[in-house]
Structures are given as C-alpha cells and as structure tokens.
Known about the structure:
By secondary structure, this protein is an alpha/beta fold.
Amino acid sequence: MSSLKRFFWLLHRPNLYPxxxxxxxxxxxxxxxxxxxxxxAQSRAKAQEEATKWCEQYAIDTxxxxxxxxxxxxxxxxxxxxxxxxSRAREITEKSPVQMGGGGxxxxxxxxxxxxxxxxxxxxxxxxxxxSLTLLLSLSQRSNSHLISTDLPYFFEGSEQYVGCxxxxxxxxxxxxxxxxxxxxxxQALKRLNVIDMAHYDxxxxxxxxxxxxxxxxxxxxxxxxxxxxxxHDDFAFRDFSDSVGENPIIVQTPILENAKYVGIIIKPNA
Length: 271
C-alpha cells in the first residue's frame, strides 16, 4: 500500500489518529535521538536477546504449567475437543489474502479459562482471532459471560474485514471488539468490565506499552484471576511488572518450529 493510499485510508479513521501520532513520534525519536531511543531495531534486538535468556532460565512446558496451576494431571487436549471448529478456522486463514499474526498458546489459554470458569475476560490483540475463538469456546459454555477484545487494525486497506475472521457467528453474541489502540480501547473495555476473571495480553510489543497496560489489567483482575502475556521474550516488561507487584511469574515455553515463544502468567493472590 503506497504512502498516499495509507494516508487517505487513515484519514477516514479518526479513532486511529492518536496511534498514528505516537508512531510518528517514535520515528522522529529514532531519527534524531537514536542513542536514547528504546524503539530502534538495535535497542530492541539487544533487549530481546537478554529477555530471552531470562525466559530460558525459568521456562516450563505447557503441560507442566497447566498441571501446576489447575492441579489436573490429565485433561482433554483443546485440539481434540474442538477439531471441527479449529479445522474450519484453519481453512479460513489459509484462504485469507491478508497475513496476520499467529494464535499464541491456545491449549494454555483454554485450560486456564476453564479452570477459572471465567465469565468476564479482556484480551488485547485479535488479528485472525485465534485466541478470541479459544476464549469464546470456553466462555460460551457459561451464561452471562463476555469477552471484550481490543484490536488496532493493520494500517492498510482491507485489513479490518479479516480481524477476528475465524470466530463463527454463533459465538459473536458473547463478544465485543473495540477497534483502536490500547491507549484508547483498553480504558473503554475496563469501563464495561471493571472486574475480570482473566486477561490475555497480545498487543503493543513495546516495553512502554506493556508497562502502561499491565497495571490496568492487573488492577481489574479479581482475587485468584490470571494475567497471561504473550511474547514476553521481547523485553523485560513482564519481569519488571511481576517484580513491581511482588509475584513470581510462571514462564511457559511454546516451541514454534526451530524457535521458541514464551508466555508469562501471573496469578493474583486471594485477598
């Protein structure tokens, strides 16, 4: 998409103006003050290298994490329980002309939602909607449940119609999407669900964005609630936030081909 087309696309979406301004400010900072910027490719690569080493030191696998949190030694795997829904979702993404992000650790997300018998959940970041689908397959089994998702559309024409495309129509009555960046959408979500059972973070990947959002989600969690964050190996935001609330996080390694992704979990103490 050309710069001119992107400009006119953005011009018709005033709800995205604040995020566009923030991105412009980051570019200016990278250009004129790279030595003090945390947004440059070099500074982010260094942060990721150091954070990945920290994750590797403490990581456990998905099965171990689920057992540690839920006490379950055995459970029906998510992939087996919902074969039909997941197969349909894969067909949709394979036909999509728009490339978006992956789905995270779906087994972990589903089993923890079931363990909590979650009713009120907030997630940040949707893309195709893999984590949304996973959460909704759990929440839809309970009445009066609801998922609010915040999502910043990709800045190009046609991206919006594919956001959440894997979620079938029968689950959408349990779901609300707020199409804006975290800074604008998350306060709206927290007004609608001011006490939540679970939060799943998979949006702004910058340290500053995470450290802005984590406390807000944490404060909204009820005692015993769970905060899950994807891609915590990007920087030390998750480690630093865990330290700030005095909780030892659970680090889960999710193998992705030759590499590994790391998911972080913090359980809010019971009052």
